[in-house]
Every structure is written in C-alpha cells, then in structure tokens.
Give the backbone structure.
Amino acid sequence: MPLTSDINVVAHAAQQRCIELFAATDGNHGRAVAFMARLLGLEANIYVPRVMDEQTKGSIQHEGATVHVMHGDYDDAVQNAMIAADAPQGVLVQDTAWPGYEETPARIVEGYSTMLTELDAQLHQQGLEADAVFCPVGVGSLAHAVSRHFKSASRRKIAKVVTVEPNTAACLNASLRSGKLEKIETGDTIMSGMNCGTVSYTAWPDLQKLVDVSVTVSDLEAHKATRYSEIMGVSAGPCGACGIAALRAVHQDHRNDVDRGENKVIVLLNTEGKRAYNVPQSHF
C-alpha cells in the first residue's frame, strides 16, 4: 500500500486482515501506537517494564490498548513484544532497531521531522535560529531525528546537539565513552520514560558522529527541574524537564561553550507532561 494512502483506506485494509499491533514502551511510543490502533479500529498490545508508573500505564490503557507488564526492564519488554508479534496477523511497531528490523524504526524517526519542522517555523516567526538543542534520550530515536535535522548541511545554521539521560540508565553516554554500542544494566529512575539499556542499532552511527555533548542527570536534579517548570507555568514531568537539569549542568561545566555568549537560542525538548512520581530525597 502506498505511503500516501488515505488513513480510512489503511484502516479498512488493516481491519479486513484483522491486523493486531504490538509494541514495547517506556511511555510515549506505546501510547502513540495505542492511539493509532484506536484510530484504525485495531487491537493493540503494549508491553511495558515493571517500573512503569501507574499514570503512564493508565494513559496507554485509556487509548484502548491491552498493557502487559513484564517482570524485567525495557529490553525485556521489547523481547516479549517481538515474540508476541510473531502471531499470524501480528505487526510489531517498535521505535528501536536491531539487525533485520530496521525499516519501521526508520519510519518513526522520519515522523519526528514534522515536529522539528514546526519547531523551526516557530523560531523563524520570531527571527530566531537554534544554537543548541537539548534532547532527552531513551533508545535514541528522537535524538537520531534531532541530530540529523539540526546537523543537516542544508541548514543556514548548524546547531549543537546535547543529549540528556538519567545517570542510572545512560546507555548512549556509555556507548559514546567506549566508542562502541553498549548494552547496560539500568536502575530505577523517576525519568521512567528514558529507562532504556540499549541504543537503537540504526541510531547509533549518526549519534556517535553528530552528538556534541552527552549529559547525565540524577533524579534529584530532574525533580528540581520539574518543580522549576511548574513554577514557570510549564507542564512537564521528569522526562520533560530533564533538559533544564542538563542545561544547568552544562552551564557549570566550563569545558564546553554550548550556552556561552550573549543571545544564544537554546531549545529544550519537553517530551512529557506533568505526572505524579516518587519524589527523590536529598542526601544533604
């Protein structure tokens, strides 16, 4: 079926074949798949790690999907979704890639370009262009799209790309430090939507070349940034506000010039609205 097909035509064809969608998620991706399944009139099965918060699970269920809670981490959820999708009419819609499963994640990365084009348009309306973009990282698909977009040779100004991860689930940071794709064990974090242990296979080569600065932040730093967002009237959960925490960390690190100089335009990508979470305690 052509990529330009009308959504109603797609829905009818999928329903005729009794297509069932499968995906693993730490949050946003699963909800998006569930939303599209509802829009297309299809069943959706979303596999999630044991640490996913109840509000996020509820948001996915509200879209009509069946949520399967795994005993393990995000990578375990991906493995179970892949196995379950092997059913006769099953279709795996995953935003992380591995050898042999690359086309669908690539389409998802392409889809993020809509948001980035709109971001550029809003800046241009104000006569601005981004100097640096701070992007939260889970498996790295959004960061992949951000890096390719803001490092494109066709741009009038090339922006610096700063990635942000929980310090308990920093798979990209670990890979950048070692120079090769690393799988890590992750710990609990209030930034649950970013609690991933492996960077997407197809995202890694570009991220390795294009990311300027990789920052990790603690739960306490993310919590303080979330509270600051609320004070400033911005709806953000810990994943959405972590860019503020990263900007603070970068500002204190004199080894880089991401935010140095006057009139710099810094873009912080907010990927999560306000939600409940366990408030971390300070050790001081």
Summary: The two ends are 59 Å apart (CA to CA).
